[in-house]
Design goal:
The protein is mainly alpha-helical. It is built from 9 helices and 3 strands, in the order αβααββαααααα. The radius of gyration is 17 Å and the shape is elongated.
């Protein structure tokens, strides 16, 4: 998640670590998670772990199954993934179209800062950092909209898509795709920005 995000509570810190493990593929889809094991790992009581589970379930990364406990969510199936992609595109295109005429230089500077972090991650071939900053970039767009419920709709879809982030044969393509989005925004070309955003989400 965003590098600028401050995790103020133990559950937030635990959720952030587990989220990174899931998105990096260190915790595989379907893997069971036990409160007692994670309590020992993080040196905390089971309460903060339970709250972290709740947060990650809301974000779509964990599922609570009757008689099975908490498990890492499965990747979307081959049949379902096109629907997930379309849902995410619909939300992000709606937001970008809605906010386009009131994007400020301050907004662009925030996105440009994230883009620099994406470039550094690509150059270092740091997939964990790339995943985090890819999400930061798109989250910044979503959170520019006045209706904060859109983030609640978007987050579990985006999170599920980012599990085992490996769609690019050439890692620097991620930087180039996000660069095209921002260049179009800076040029005031809404159609090009939406096209670049749509191409990036797949």
């Amino acid at each position: 998640m965003p590098a600028f995000e401050i995790f103020r509570t133990l559950p937030e810190q635990i959720a952030a670590r587990l989220r990174q493990d899931i998105l990096a593929g260190q915790l595989q889809p379907g893997a069971p998670l036990r409160e007692v094991d994670l309590s020992e790992r993080f040196g905390v009581s089971r309460g903060p772990v339970r709250e972290a589970f709740r947060q990650l379930t809301q974000q779509g990364l964990l599922v609570l199954e009757p008689n099975k406990g908490v498990r890492v969510a499965q990747n979307p199936s081959v049949e379902v993934r096109p629907l997930v992609v379309q849902l995410r595109r619909t939300i992000e295109v709606f937001v970008l179209d809605s906010i386009f005429d009131r994007i400020t230089e301050a907004d662009i500077e925030i996105w440009d800062e994230i883009l620099r972090d994406i470039k550094r991650a690509c150059e270092a071939k740091d997939l964990n950092s790339l995943t985090d900053n890819d999400l930061r970039f798109h989250q910044a767009i979503i959170q520019s909209h006045d209706d904060k419920d859109l983030f609640t709709l978007w987050q579990p879809i985006a999170m599920r898509m980012m599990m085992q982030y490996n769609r690019l044969d050439e890692i620097m393509d991620s930087y180039r795709e996000h660069r095209r989005i921002l260049d179009a925004v800076r040029a005031g070309d809404k159609a090009a920005a939406i096209e670049a955003l749509t191409t990036n989400i797949q």
